[in-house]
Automatic annotation (TrEMBL):
InterPro entries: Cyclase_SnoaL-like, NTF2-like_dom_sf. This is Predicted ester cyclase. PANTHER family: ESTER CYCLASE (PTHR38436:SF1), POLYKETIDE CYCLASE SNOAL-LIKE DOMAIN (PTHR38436). One of its GO terms (biological process) is polyketide metabolic process.
Length: 141
């Protein structure tokens, strides 16, 4: 696939997660069946993190930030990889990272590196600005 086509895959994935257009089927369809999530595996102390694990993670995330929006600030692509700088905004409405709902607005960033195969995400690595997020929901860090 072309570099622009790969960027479009990531744009569609982010748009599908946005509260205004949330389309879970489109999100799940964004991944290869064997997609891996190394950052989430490391974060949870697990050897691996599968698409099924990601579904559970994302549904919990959408409960915590039901009005979440994802703004793609920048995409950089080379070969089968796309780097994405995303701004996430929403309202903390249910438990998130062990913190009960505060109903406070949040805004923080994510940097992701996505490896694509045949028009789908085959590997997803993302780093979230957890310090900013946690401070906004009242956690001293």
């Amino acid at each position: 696939m072309s570099i622009e086509a790969n960027k479009d895959v990531i744009r569609r994935f982010m748009t599908a997660g946005d509260a205004a257009t949330r389309d879970l089927a489109a999100i799940w369809d964004s991944f290869t069946p064997d997609c891996t999530f190394p950052t989430l595996a490391a974060r949870t102390g697990r050897a691996s993190f599968t698409v099924t694990d990601y579904r559970t993670f994302l549904l919990d995330y959408f409960r915590a930030l039901p009005d979440a929006t994802f703004t793609v600030d920048e995409l950089i692509a080379e070969d089968d990889r796309v780097w994405a700088h995303i701004t996430i905004r929403g309202t903390h409405s249910a438990e998130l990272r062990g913190v009960p709902a505060t109903h406070r607005p949040v805004e923080y960033t994510q940097l992701g590196l996505y490896t694509l195969r045949e028009g789908k995400i085959a590997r997803a690595r993302a780093v979230f600005d957890d310090v900013t997020l946690l401070r906004q929901i009242g956690v001293q860090v």
